[in-house]
Amino acid sequence: MDISLSRKYRQLQEIFSQHKKVAVAFSGGVDSSFLLYAACVTLGSSLVHAFHARSELLPPFESEGVECAIQERGCSFHPIEIKPFSWPDFVANGSDRCYHCKKKIYQTFLADLLFSKGVLLFDGTNLDDLGQDRPGLLAASELNVQTPLADVGLAKKEIRSLSREFGLPTWDAYASSCLATRIAQREPITREKILLVSQCEALLRERGFMGVRVRLSKETATIVVLQEDLGEIQKKHVLSAIKGMFLFLGLHKVMIDLQGRPHGAG
After folding, report:
1. Helices (H), 166-209
2. pTM for this model (two decimals)
3. Distance between CA 248 and CA 163 in Å, rounded?
4. Beta strand pairing status for 213-217 and 220-224?
5. For 27-83, how does the pLDDT look when each residue is reduced to its tens digit (9 = 90+)?
6. Domain 179-256 maps to which CATH number in 3.30.300, 3.30.460, 1.20.120, 2.60.120?
7. Rounded to whole angstroms, how far apart are CA atoms 119 and 99?
8. Residue 48 is inside which H or E element, if any?
9. What is the pLDDT of residues 179-238, one digit of tens each?
10. Where are the beta strands (DSSP E) in 91-225?
């Protein structure tokens, strides 16, 4: 293991070692999976509690992955049902949507009696996140949610490298994000739009396009595939079949983002 990574990992363990018990906000993604692993290795699984927000904003296949990861870690699991479509600030889909959503989720987690005993909540914010426009970071800060990966200076690539070193299946996982990020800003978020996006992305995965995003603006869908898949999706017969499926679902226009996504992009 690289000396710098080894040092950062030891610092991460030192942070956990200062606590008798910890709680981790667990989405099942690369960062939170690594964070949960580190907490369990450091303290022992019996002293780690994983809190997970369940809703229609997470693709079904990702929810299944969460269950498997928890079983492998053997820690206490707290699946919490959230109802984002009942939150006006979320549905309005303004520039601060993520702030309100993250705050609601963490407030729901922190309402658990576990936190009245002095236990702290940790999340998977990494060093790269600090340099991006992520309103949810403010919510975490306001609620005293701990961000140890960022605190020890671990960036996304380093987390993937350490995850590979420790044999975590998420080391090369496609970056994930909630389905609400697919809806054009200031267009109200509805259950129907989220379901439509989920269906479209599922169809694309069935055709072999992994790590895909389908961005929705009114009745136009913009497909964002990995950069290495741009050539395949632009083949006439492939694109024609995809457009046919999307139009059948009620969309009026289908476009391809010609920039594509890097493998590890959010």
Report:
1. 191-206
2. 0.93
3. 41
4. antiparallel
5. 999 999 999 999 999 999 999 999 999 999 988 778 778 988 899 999 999 999 999
6. 3.30.300
7. 23
8. strand 48-54
9. 999 999 999 999 999 999 999 999 999 999 999 999 999 999 999 999 999 999 999 999
10. 120-122, 213-217, 220-224
